[in-house]
Inverse folding.
């Protein structure tokens, strides 16, 4: 009985790391199997990232959906900047993942990080002009200012002509 | 295989071509490099368990760059290019598009990703306003794969902006690239079937 209990505890302790490792090694069949086993979804690695963050970071919309269905929380904040997974999806430019996250919790859209920035700032910084259009359409403002008093357009890369065009169409720069 | 990783297929080809010994000979004779520059233990990039402990393939950035450029020149000589056989970011599907697609890389970067426990890599070429630049990044993730990719993305964007910005290649790639004269490409098959 004791042995069974130890084995059970070991299974819970190692299920989280196994899920994160399987995700990062692209072993998605193993991910599915681990999810069936009610793997510990709240496990975070040494950097504070859980399975959902890794799936977003890998730009895997299907896995993101599966994790959310299995119970992953979408409102967790990561890193010292206290950013939601929506920021990571914005870095990658993934509208699919952004819509999956917002469908689960629409409040994520206006959630600011510790620098007082919305995901619109991240879209400009990450050279994702299509997301700038998308976020403005969904109600975010290009007039928002961060802690330094800067607006999203202040982070424009001069060599990015697509972003220049989008910002001009939206009435800035 | 160059777009969507397939470790098993890569290893099968490597073994078919003569395995580690034949590769060592190939790089010495054709690329004038030694095992100090590149050491291939298998074709998959997966871990190899040896009596001395687990080992991985090893290569310097310089060696990998040399191989990418050599492959590109070989393809050019055969009226092709790297863009025809690897992921054009944003144009083709594949891990390079999944991780590195943005306004400055879209349709101007051709690359292949690599991810194993000791390293996260990206190698390929960027078409910029000042010309084509070949690159190779090898980052030790130390458990943080996302951060490693962010570091690569930052350096890749710097490379493009420092060279005047991106220059789209309007690339088209083969859906299947034939390795010898006896096999047909998908395009050729479609032509025959018409």
């Amino acid at each position: 009985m004791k042995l069974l209990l130890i084995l059970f505890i070991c299974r819970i302790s190692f299920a989280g790391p196994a899920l994160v490792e399987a995700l990062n090694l692209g072993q998605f069949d193993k991910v599915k199997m681990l999810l069936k086993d009610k793997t510990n979804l709240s496990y975070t690695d040494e950097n504070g990232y859980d399975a959902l963050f890794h799936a977003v970071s890998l730009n895997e919309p299907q896995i993101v959906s599966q994790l959310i269905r299995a119970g992953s929380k979408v409102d967790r904040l990561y890193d010292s900047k206290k950013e939601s997974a929506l920021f990571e999806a914005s870095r990658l430019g993934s509208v699919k993942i952004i819509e999956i996250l917002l469908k689960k919790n629409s409040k994520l859209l206006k959630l600011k990080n510790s620098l007082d920035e919305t995901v619109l700032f991240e879209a400009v910084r990450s050279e994702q002009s299509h997301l700038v259009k998308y976020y403005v359409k969904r109600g975010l403002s290009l007039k928002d200012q961060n802690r330094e008093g800067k607006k999203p357009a202040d982070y424009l890369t001069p060599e990015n002509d697509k972003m220049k065009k989008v910002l001009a169409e939206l009435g800035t720069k | 295989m160059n777009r969507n990783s397939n470790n098993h297929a890569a290893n099968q080809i490597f073994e078919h071509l003569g395995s580690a010994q034949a590769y060592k000979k190939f790089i010495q004779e054709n690329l004038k490099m030694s095992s100090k520059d590149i050491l291939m233990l298998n074709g998959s990039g997966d871990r190899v368990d040896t009596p001395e402990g687990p080992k991985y393939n090893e290569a310097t950035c310089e060696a990998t760059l040399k191989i990418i450029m050599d492959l590109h020149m070989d393809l050019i000589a055969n009226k092709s290019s790297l863009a025809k056989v690897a992921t054009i970011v944003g144009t083709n599907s594949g891990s390079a598009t999944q991780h590195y697609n943005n306004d400055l890389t879209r349709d101007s970067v051709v690359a292949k990703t690599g991810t194993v426990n000791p390293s996260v890599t990206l190698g390929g070429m960027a078409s910029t306003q000042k010309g084509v630049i070949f690159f190779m990044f090898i980052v030790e993730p130390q458990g943080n794969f996302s951060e490693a990719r962010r570091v690569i993305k930052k350096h890749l964007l710097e490379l493009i902006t420092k060279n005047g910005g991106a220059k789209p290649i309007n690339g088209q790639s083969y859906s299947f690239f034939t390795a010898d004269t006896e096999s047909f490409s998908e395009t050729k098959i479609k032509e025959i079937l018409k």
